[in-house]
Prior knowledge:
This protein is mostly helical. It is built from 9 helices and no strands.
Amino acid sequence: MSIDRKSLILQAATKSFVQFGYKATTMEQVSKIANVGKGTIYTFFKTKEELFEEILDKATQELTSVMNRIAAEDNTFIHKLFNLLDSILEFRSDHELFVKLAQEVRDIGTVQALEGVKRMEDYALDFLRQQIETAISSGEVKPCDSSVAAFMILRLYLALTTEWNKAHEPLDEARIKEHMMLFISNGILK
């Protein structure tokens, strides 16, 4: 049975990035975890940045798969929207790499970690924008700037699910969706 060295290296690098963060991960650590020589790593990846990019690409594919599955559901726009938002939040909190990258951004401000987090968020925003445009075309959503709407919706959702909890009693899922609906469907003006 042949060993897929590239997959082994990617698994080891992911483990190292999760454990130590981007800044503290070295090619030497990756080689030790993968139990291969550093030269073997360099046959597949010229730099740590290139290795990191490949790992981000894989994570993006995972997120894409989840979001495409939800977008294909036979549901109303608002149900799909909440399911998409839930899946994005779940992905961010369950995917150990992004938990560590977010921590590194907060604690150290590493540029590459920030770019990794931003890349995933930009991807999610673009996906939401596309869903909003589809809903506008089908008449489920009023004409609007889909980029601004996607940004506002994602930011509001993330604020209510993560930021709010830092200074207040956490909101349950029903209350979060109730407040989201208030702003999305009716607005707050009479």
